[in-house]
């Protein structure tokens, strides 16, 4: 191709390049226009979403503020209700203590003749006190709920006579293993039993009427008849045992059918609380020799078994605690003083605060003047307010 032909093609190529460049620019402009439209749409949507989010946030803040006000109002109402309930309980306590105790037995001629015959048979013996203890319970001064441990029924206590701080726990109404915690702190803080030593008894116990006294465990074994076992806690041996000299025994408390003998301790020593078929309406009391387990003296008390859930002895006076079939507030409703130094009308009606159910055990500690109670699996301490007896 000659030079003149190349010169002819140059204008044609320039025209083609300009046409392509124009098309490319138009394409780029179209793409930029679409991109601007999308950015504008995104901006509009973002603004709308921001507005909706701000409105929702304000709505949630308003709801939270309303909920906080309602929570404060409900808390104030709950505190006010608690104050009213506490005041009502105090008023009920006051009104109930102003009413005389209902009679512990039915007054009829047959019962009177039976009481007279029993009194003549026993020569109306009064107990000769070993100590100068002249106190009786006035009221529950304070209550402390320690924890919830084990079954709904059980027993926990300290040594009623010694200075040991060990806590003994009997879980259930039929078992052969006692948990021993070194101090109250270990028992309170740890939910498991890993901090507790275990004592396996040679015979299983029955009921919740056991007692730790002066380094020995006195517990009830059922083998046809009921036996009181004296077990040395130091060397883990049975020291003595005695068949309880009562025929046809029945549960001593109407609301605790698993307990046939309640071994108790007070300032005077050891006692056994029981019931027999011979006088199935009322509770019986016996003084025990802690060394030989011999029965030193026995009494028929005027305290009924019906609706009784537990009992303890304070300064030689039996205090029987009553409740209802549908658990309500426990109360001491019958007091029997074996020495005759406390008139029945002078005995205080002690009411225990209602908490969970009914007590399966109540152990009085004469050393600490408090009661270790087991209430529906909760371990509770009742600190007692004492007063002097008014001698008859």
Give the fraction of residues assigned to helices. 25-40%
Unreliable spans: 99-109, 111-120
- Highest-level CATH class of the largest domain: Mainly Beta
How does the major sheet shape up? Answer: 4 strands, antiparallel
Strand order of the largest sheet: 1-19-18-17
Question: For the CA atoms, what is the radius of gyration?
Answer: 41 Å
Q: What fraction of residues sit in β-strands? A: 35-45%
The secondary structure category is alpha+beta
CATH architecture of the largest domain: Beta Barrel
**Mean pLDDT, as a whole number?**
83
The CATH topology of the largest domain turns out to be: Lipocalin
User: How many separate helices?
Assistant: 3
Q: Quick one: overall form? A: elongated
* Element-level helix/strand string: HHEEEEHEEEEEEEEEEEEEEE
Number of domains: 2
Q: How many beta-strand elements? A: 19
Distance between the termini: 153 Å
Signal peptide: 1-19
Family: Belongs to the OLFML3 family.
Main location: secreted
Keywords: Coiled coil, Developmental protein, Disulfide bond, Glycoprotein, Secreted, Signal
Helix and strand arrangement:
Layout: H1 3-98, H2 109-122, E1 135-148, E2 154-157, E3 167-171, E4 174-181, H3 184-189, E5 197-206, E6 211-213, E7 216-223, E8 225-232, E9 237-243, E10 261-266, E11 269-274, E12 282-288, E13 295-304, E14 308-314, E15 317-322, E16 331-337, E17 359-365, E18 370-375, E19 378-388
Antiparallel strand pairs: 1-19, 2-3, 3-4, 4-5, 6-7, 7-8, 8-9, 10-11, 11-12, 12-13, 14-15, 15-16, 17-18, 18-19
